[in-house]
Amino acid sequence: MSIKDRIGLDLNQRMPLEPGIDLAIKEKIRFLNICLDPEPELLDPKNPRLAQAKKKLADHGITLGLHTLSAMNTAEGSPFLARAADAYLAAYLQAAKAIGAPWVIMHGGYHFTADKQMRMELAVERLTRASKIAESEGVNIHLENMNPEPAGAEVKYLVHDVEEAKFYFKNLTSPSVRWVFTTNHAHMLPYGISGFVEQMEKAGVGVDRIGEVRLADNRGEIEEHLYPGTGNLDFGAMFKLLEGRGYRGHYMQDYMTVPDMVKGRHIVADLADGALARVGA
Fold it and tell me: Where is the Xylose isomerase-like TIM barrel domain (predicted)?
């Protein structure tokens, strides 16, 4: 499969399910992600639209993954809300099985100024429970590294750096839990994309555990999902790094609008092909 064929689109909440599949067929896109929250009826595994979509995806060779909201705090511990968080993740895993999605992207939650360790432990406990459901449903959980927030921010995402990621992956031992490497988030850290990968490898979480690589340009300062070429992320170096370490999975764009990603896919593929051709990959 060519690099271009391996580059997909995260529809997220930008487009409903069926039009998104039709777009992928038209544009010959092989990989999609989507968030089902705008149509919560699709979180019912008995909804016939899921079975219909599953057949259409299979007929056209498209792989669809599901993407939960980062706003849902996986590290939630409050009464009522904690039970709702468990139910939310379980519903996504059951919907994934019904639609034939091999993975569900989840997040490590977020913490406040003084409760980071407690929140990480709560999140690991919740994701451990979710991983047992994932195993029974035959679905993988893809845990995403998130963006750093300003140092003085009261609320910060978890799994934003290597140390937090190592804590999660050390304690999440289920084979159903894989890593979603969001390159534009790692680009914002002092050690950058290459430093993130190298430190994770030393911790025993190499590219063989990456289930998806996420793409957007970024200027390395604040959380931005920019059109390729409008930031300073070195896509060529990123592709050489990952492909050189043996990554052969899919890439997922997540920036701006769906038409922007359809056009940007050609730019990203050309950057990858040029970089890899120079090293004989």
Answer: 41-252
